Amino acid sequence: MSEETKNSESVVKSAEENNTPVTSKKIRRRPRRSRPRSKTIAMKRLTREEIREGKMLYPLFDDSKRPKNRKECKGSKRPCPWIGCKYHLYIDINPETGSMKINFPDLEPWELPETCALDVADRGGTTLEEVGDLINLTRERIRQVEVRGLIKLKTVGDEVGESETFSLN
Q1: Backbone angles phi, psi at 25, to 5 degrees
Q2: Omega before residue 36 within 30° of 0, cis
Q3: DSSP letter assigned to residue 92
Q4: In angstroms, what CA-CA distances link 94 with 26, 51, 85, 99, 131?
Q5: What pTM, to 2 d.p., does this model score?
Q6: What CA–CA distance (Å, rounded) separates 117 from 34?
């Protein structure tokens, strides 16, 4: 009998004697999900009545005060009130389908620790874990998105003739 088998049998026997459950050697470092998954609202699945109610609750607003560029945006108040901005971390809107993905369904926009992706990018030096917490995705999914982005950059560089500039390593 191998040493590992003897050790596992002794653990099972001692657990039975103490009336405690046997735990696996493989223990997760962190819980699977620390917050609820993001929710997507597809515009084509909404009824006419729901769309009408939404228009009554949230009428169109004056867009003239909205920042036009990063320079204007950088000095504005935080949390960012412009949820419809493509850099806002609370909601993602697909321009092709009109569907909305609410990244943090359990929080209100003003409760987010960071609201602008550009502020996070300016800060720099963030890990995959930190980025995942900011946009409610797993570290692995962030890594996959990063690889896809690097591949796109490489193909654009190849088309332009500057493939030496971009590297996947």
Answers
A1: -70, -30
A2: no
A3: E
A4: 40, 17, 12, 5, 20
A5: 0.58
A6: 21
